[in-house]
Structures are given as C-alpha cells and as structure tokens.
C-alpha cells in the first residue's frame, strides 16, 4: 500500500486538469497503475486520494439537460432539417425539409421544403416561424438545433433579432434534440417513406397533411396524452 501511495503521490498531478478530469481520476489512475503491473480497485484508489487531500470534486452546479428542457419547455423551440429524395423531370433530386417543434405543446409550427436552402429562404422561414409564434401567443426564448451550417446564418440572425437565444447541441449528439429527432422519424417512417413523391408540390402537400394530423389528432405521452392542437 505504501508503494501505491508513492506512485500516486508522484504521478497524480498530471491528471488534475480540472473538475471534469478529477471526477474520472480513480478510473484513469487505475488504468495507469495496471500498465505498471499494480492492481487496485477504484475504491481503494479513491480512498488513497482522500487521505492525501484530494477529495472528489463537488457535483456540477446548474441544471441538468433534462431539467433545462422541462423547465423551459413553454418557451423552447426544437429545430432540425432532413433530406428527402423527390422525383422530378430531370430525375431524382434532394429536397431539404426544415421543421420546428414547440416543446411545451409538441405542436409542429413549421414544416417546409425546398431544393435550394439558401440564406434568403432560411431567413424567410425564420420570419414565418415568428409570425406563427405570434399567432399562437408563444414567446420563444430558446431555439435548439444542431450545428448545421444551413441554420447558422440567416435563420439564426432573424431569431436572435427577436431576442431568442440559440442553443446548439454538442457535436455528434442527436439525442440532445431528441424530440425533433422523434418527429423526423415519425414523419419519414409513417408518411414520406410510404409515398412516391413527384415534384416539390407533392412533398409540400404530404408535409402539410402529416403536420395537420400530428397537430390535430395524435395524442402524446409527454403531455399527458393530450393532442398538441387542443
């Protein structure tokens, strides 16, 4: 045990890069000790750290991600985009679908598609979204979306000008925007993937019909099996 204490005493400092690392310190030190042929449990290592004046770091202050979503659901909009192949006279073309979900009611506020998601179109969609929020008496404070570059310019600029704060999900973390991901899966699996779409008009019509069904007829467990439009 004394030999282990000497190993920890000489080498632990390089692992203390901050509170986040300190929480993982027993596990990381155990791995380093295994490379030296020393086998000790994480509990044993944590006990040695405490006796040497290196207690576990306190819990991180602030809300968890789930707490943040639940507390701000009434003023939070979930935004995402996905692609869909559409038949045209020139063959298959990739269409881009932009949709926005109000977390508090699960209502889909916007579901539009285009072949060219340029800045002008994205800015107009943001303005349409703000008008829908005004009609429904929704005052968005937070807009949640991933780090897609299509959302990072004109779309965000219009929303921030309306005093909404853009919250971007971490890299490669789709579950951080799970409600939007769920609607994308429902819209594609239950509707779009069951159709042969010819032209942008057919895609827009399918999105409109499914959005109306989702908002007006489908109960949701997350809101006590109520229907978003009621």
Helix content: 40-55%
Number of helices: 9
Strand content: 15-25%
Number of strands: 5
Radius of gyration: 25 Å
Q: From the helix content, strand content and strand pairing, which structural class follows?
A: alpha/beta
**The CATH top-level class label of the largest domain:** Alpha Beta
Side-by-side strand order of the widest sheet = 3-2-1-4-5
Series of H and E elements? HHHHHEEEHEHEHH
Taking pLDDT < 50 over at least 5 consecutive residues as the criterion, the unreliable ranges are: 10-20
Would you kindly provide a brief summary of this structure?
With 230 residues, this protein is of the alpha/beta class. Helices cover 43% and strands 18% of the residues. The protein has helices spanning 2-11, 19-23, 25-35, 42-51, 65-71, 119-135, 154-161, 178-190, 199-217, and strands at residues 76-88, 91-102, 107-114, 142-145, 165-168.
Key terms for this structure?
single chain; about 230 residues; alpha/beta; Nucleotidyltransferase, domain 5; 2 domains; 5-stranded mixed beta sheet; 5 strands; about 45% helix; elongated
Report what the structure shows:
By secondary structure, this protein is α/β, with parallel strands linked by helices. The chain has two domains: 2-51; 66-223, Ribonuclease H-like superfamily/Ribonuclease H (Nucleotidyltransferase, domain 5). Helix content is 43%, strand content 18%. It has helices at 2-11, 19-23, 25-35, 42-51, 65-71, 119-135, 154-161, 178-190, 199-217; strands at 76-88, 91-102, 107-114, 142-145, 165-168. A five-stranded mixed beta sheet has the order 3-2-1-4-5, sandwiched between helices. The radius of gyration is 25 Å and the shape is elongated. Residues 10-20 have low confidence and may be disordered.
């Amino acid at each position: 045990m004394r030999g282990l204490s000497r190993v920890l005493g000489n080498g632990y400092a390089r692992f203390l890069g901050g509170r986040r690392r300190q929480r993982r310190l027993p596990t990381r030190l155990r791995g380093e000790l295994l490379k030296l042929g020393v086998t000790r449990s994480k509990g044993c290592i944590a006990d040695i750290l405490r006796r040497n004046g290196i207690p576990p770091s306190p819990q991180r202050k602030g809300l968890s991600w789930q707490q943040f979503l639940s507390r701000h659901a009434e003023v939070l909009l979930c935004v995402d985009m996905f692609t869909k192949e559409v038949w045209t006279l020139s063959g298959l073309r990739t269409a881009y679908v932009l949709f926005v979900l109000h977390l508090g009611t699960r209502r889909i506020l916007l579901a539009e598609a285009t072949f060219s998601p340029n800045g002008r179109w994205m800015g107009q969609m943001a303005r349409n979204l703000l008008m829908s929020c005004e009609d429904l008496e929704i005052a968005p404070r937070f807009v949640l979306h991933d780090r897609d570059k299509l959302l990072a310019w004109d779309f965000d600029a219009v929303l921030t000008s309306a005093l909404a704060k853009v919250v971007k999900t971490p890299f490669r973390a789709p579950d951080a925007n799970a409600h939007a991901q769920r609607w994308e899966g429902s819209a594609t699996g239950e509707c779009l993937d069951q159709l042969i779409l010819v032209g942008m008009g057919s895609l827009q019509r399918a999105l409109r019909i499914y959005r109306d069904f989702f908002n007006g007829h489908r109960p949701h467990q997350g809101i006590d099996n109520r229907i978003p439009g009621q």
